[in-house]
Structures are given as structure tokens and as C-alpha cells.
Specification:
about 500 residues; alpha/beta; about 25% helix; globular; about 20% strand; 11-stranded mixed beta sheet; single chain; 2 domains; Alkaline Phosphatase, subunit A
Length: about 500
């Protein structure tokens, strides 16, 4: 396992204690308090936050002390991926442990979508309900806005948030409501209703202005804190999927104008504050040592928004692409006494691995339906030579764009979005993107993380091996690029 411990003495000391306890016949179960409750699970998900948008990942112009502390007390992943560089697909995969093609959630669902995540799919929340966990989600859902698809129908006890992305509303980039005149330039906006704020299954308010957007991070955080306090005596699963830093950006007065970078930095600082509030509440109630906290982004930065977008440096490109900047994201996990503090994991891992890992930790039964995730608990435990994820597939809206095994990544011929050499937007307005034609390309990500040197002609055996992996997944999940229909795709409309 490529697991670097920056404070080796902590690891050695910790393992020494474990070895002594086991050799003396006093295992962890014997030392634990009787009836100790199962560990709490907290997943904090941000929207469009780039790989370099956390202090310990190299952020510039703002600080993230709470996230940096989380990394100091846990593990920072350097090769962590989402299943797809777009909202709904990424979220479906996180909650089900499947590539989004398997559960047939592609792209980003809009307010006109008449489908969502199939109620027959098993989410992390539903899985944990079988172990008597309290479950709450506070933030962006984006897996179906109709009642039958909302969180309470997918295993959650509580929900407060918006049902889809915060830019899916009838408001222009300057914050003004659209008129008949402005609809002419953007006719698709005519179909967007006011952005609803939903509590449980019912709409309780509308997000109509940029000032309303500025309340979202605090609203979600306050409800998350209330949820922890209400369930402090029982095991709970808290899912906190922030709307930010997806555009349009919104930040409260607490952090407005506080960063050197500008509004994007302000927004990240408020998200960092939110993480701090969650951790403070856990500690207040003596729960921080029995809680696995996971922080991760849903995909890379939306780069054509310029100073209202983040950074994926040193990765190539961003959101909506199959380059590393699209799918490789910041991820930090903390679990006191279980995850060695101040460590760095360089193994491949993904959000699809969270469900089976949480199942292993809690003793919950895996879903009956086939999943794609693997248990990465050996990585969290810092086990020698652990490498649970051998390979990974890069899909985008039904097309298999690339396959990864170890240090090697093979991209297939395709046309992709590109931000390179395009003038970015500014202050909430987008710039243009272009289409980039990609051939069969092979990259050594260990030596070339920025994907600059195509080695496809130098390693034909590696190319052949990766093409074999691709053929297998195409048979299962299909591939629009090669016109292959998958045999294991589960319908999202058979409810």
C-alpha cells in the first residue's frame, strides 16, 4: 500500500499498543465499554470544489483550518475519484456504491425530469436503517425532485435542502429575475420554476435571490448540528451535501469579503466553518472519537466561471471532462483511534467504495443488487500492502472515456469539453468552452499527474491489457462511444 505516514512514531506507538493488547489477551472488544454504540457516520460533500481548493491540498488566497485539522487527525487521499464529473451521476454513485450507469442516472437531472433514483436501489441510508441508525440529509439532493424520489423515500428520516443544482432557477447571472425579453436569449430558463427549499417532503420556501443563496450553507449547517444533538445517544448517519461552491456563489456576512482570493475563497471559508461546527458539536457531546467523518467533493471545478471557480492544479482540466481534474477530488477521512493521524494515502479509491466500507464498519448487510464499490477499510487501517481497488473506469453520460489500473490511464477516442485557451468568465458570468478531440492516449499518472505525455506507442502490452478491462465493463454497463449496450444496467423507470 502506498501509504505515507508523516509522523511514523505515532504509527509505531499505536501498533505497539495493539500488539501488546492482543498478546495479553485483551482485544479491543474486551477493552470496550459494554453496549458501546456503533460508530456514527458523517459524509460532507461539496459541489464543484477542485482538487486544490483545500489548504492541505495547496489552496491559495484563503485558509481552511478546520479541514486542515481534519487531515492532521486523519488521512488525506491524493488519488480519490468520483464516478463521474457531473452532479446527479456523482451523487447516485456515492449513495449506492455503483457506477451511475448501473443505476441509470446520467448527467445532471433538471427540474423537468420525470424520473430519479429508483426506489428499489439501496442507499447508504437504507442500509444503515437496518442497524437502527438515525439518518438525515441537509443540502442538495439532485436525484429526483418529485416526491417519490425525495430523500425520505430513500431511507432518510429528515431532509432540508434544494432538490437540484442552485443554478436551475429563473434568475440571470446578475441576480435579476428573468423577463420575457431576457428569456429570448436563454429560452431554457423559461422552464425553470423558482428554486424550492424542501423540508421533509414539502416545500417550505423559495430561493429567489442571490441573498437567499447566501443563506444556504448556514441553513444546512444549523440543521446538521440540530440533528447531531437530537441523536447524540443513538448511532446516526449525517449526509451534508452543500450547494456551494456551485455557481451562483452565495456566502453569509460572516465570511463575505474575508478571503484574499475573492468570493470563491469566502465561500470555501464558510464551508470550512461548517465543518468546524460539525466537529465542535461532535466533541461537545463526546462523539468525535466514535464518528467516521468523510469530506469529499462531487467533481472538479467549473473552470469557465473564472474567479467564481476553483482550481484542480496540478491536474488537467476540470468538471465535465475525463481528465484527472474532472474526477480526482480532495478527500479527507477522520476516525479517531481507527485511522492513523496525519497520514497520506496514494492508493486509488472512490466514492463508490464508501457504501461497502461503511457496511464493513457497521456490520450492515450489503445490498442484494450488484454494486461496484470495494471495501477500502484496509486503507483506513493503514494495513501493509493493502490495495483493494485494482482498477477504475471513467464514464461520462453513458460513454466510457478512460480506464485506469495502477499508475496507467488509457483514454479512448472521444470529443471532450475543454477550458484550455478559452477566456474564462468573471464575477458569476461564465466564459466559453470548446470541444477537444482525443485519440487513444496512455498516461503514466505516477510520473505525469498533469497528463501531458502520451505514451500509447511505447507500451502496447499495457494498452492491450487496459482495453481488455474496458471490453468487460462495456459488456456490463455499455458504452455510447462504441455503440455497446450494457447487459447489467438497471432501469430507473420501473417503479
Amino acid at each position: 500500500m502506498k501509504h505515507n505516514n508523516r509522523r511514523k512514531f505515532l504509527k509505531d506507538f499505536g501498533f505497539g499498543i495493539s500488539a501488546l493488547a492482543l498478546s495479553s489477551g485483551f482485544g479491543l472488544k474486551q477493552c470496550a465499554k459494554p453496549n458501546k454504540k456503533l460508530p456514527n457516520i458523517v459524509i460532507i460533500l461539496t459541489d464543484d470544489q477542485g482538487y486544490a481548493d483545500v489548504g492541505c491540498y495547496g489552496a491559495k488566497g484563503y485558509k481552511t483550518p478546520n479541514l486542515d485539522k481534519l487531515a492532521e487527525e486523519g488521512v488525506r487521499f491524493t488519488d480519490f475519484h468520483v464516478s463521474q464529473a457531473v452532479c446527479s451521476s456523482s451523487r447516485a454513485s456515492l449513495l449506492t456504491g455503483c457506477y451511475s450507469e448501473r443505476v441509470n442516472i446520467l448527467g445532471a437531472l433538471n427540474p423537468q425530469a420525470d424520473y430519479g433514483l429508483n426506489p428499489r436501489e439501496t442507499t447508504i441510508a437504507e442500509m444503515l436503517k437496518t442497524k437502527d441508525y438515525a439518518t438525515g440529509i441537509f443540502g442538495k439532493w439532485h436525484l429526483g425532485h418529485l416526491k417519490q424520489f425525495l430523500p425520505l423515500q430513500h431511507g432518510f428520516d429528515e431532509y432540508l435542502g434544494v432538490p437540484y443544482s442552485n443554478d436551475m432557477w429563473p434568475v440571470d447571472y446578475n441576480g435579476e429575475q428573468y423577463t420575457e425579453e431576457t428569456y429570448t436569449a436563454k429560452p431554457w430558463k423559461r422552464k425553470y420554476p423558482q428554486l424550492p427549499l424542501i423540508d421533509g417532503n414539502e416545500q417550505v420556501a423559495e430561493i429567489k435571490t442571490l441573498e437567499d443563496q447566501a443563506t444556504l450553507t448556514t441553513r444546512y449547517t444549523e440543521r446538521a448540528v440540530q440533528f447531531i444533538e437530537k441523536n447524540k445517544d443513538n448511532p446516526f448517519f449525517l449526509y451534508l451535501p452543500h450547494s456551494m461552491p456551485h455557481v451562483p456563489l452565495g456566502v453569509s456576512d460572516k465570511f463575505k469579503g474575508k478571503s484574499e482570493q475573492g468570493m470563491y475563497g469566502d465561500v470555501i471559508m464558510e464551508i470550512d466553518w461548517s465543518v468546524g461546527e460539525v466537529m465542535k458539536t461532535l466533541k461537545k457531546h463526546g462523539l468525535d472519537d466514535n464518528t467516521l467523518v468523510i469530506f469529499v467533493s462531487d467533481n472538479g471545478p467549473w473552470l469557465n466561471y473564472g474567479n467564481h471557480a476553483g482550481s484542480a492544479d496540478p491536474l488537467r482540466e476540470g468538471k465535465g471532462t475525463n481528465w484527472e481534474g474532472g474526477l480526482r477530488v480532495p478527500c479527507i477521512m477522520r476516525w479517531s483511534g481507527q485511522i492513523t493521524a496525519n497520514t497520506e494515502c496514494n492508493n486509488i479509491a472512490s466514492t463508490i467504495d464508501l457504501l461497502p466500507t461503511i457496511a464493513k464498519i457497521t456490520g450492515a448487510t450489503l445490498p442484494e443488487n450488484k454494486i461496484d464499490g470495494v471495501n477500502i477499510l484496509p486503507l483506513l487501517k493503514n494495513e501493509n500492502d493493502a490495495n483493494p481497488r485494482d482498477h477504475f473506469f471513467y464514464y461520462y453520460c453513458g460513454s466510457l472515456g478512460a480506464v485506469r489500473q495502477g499508475k496507467w490511464k488509457l483514454l479512448f477516442p472521444q470529443e471532450m469539453r475543454s477550458y484550455v485557451d478559452m477566456e474564462p468568465g468573471k464575477d458569476g458570468y461564465p466564459g466559453r468552452t470548446k470541444k477537444l478531440k482525443v485519440g487513444l492516449e496512455l498516461y503514466n499518472l505516477e510520473d505525469d499527474i498533469s497528463e501531458t505525455k502520451n505514451l500509447v506507442n511505447d507500451y502496447p502490452d499495457i494498452v492491450k491489457k487496459l482495453e481488455g478491462l474496458a471490453d468487460k465493463i462495456r459488456f456490463e454497463l455499455g458504452d455510447k462511444l462504441t455503440n455497446v449496450e450494457g447487459n447489467e444496467i438497471r432501469l430507473n423507470r420501473d417503479f
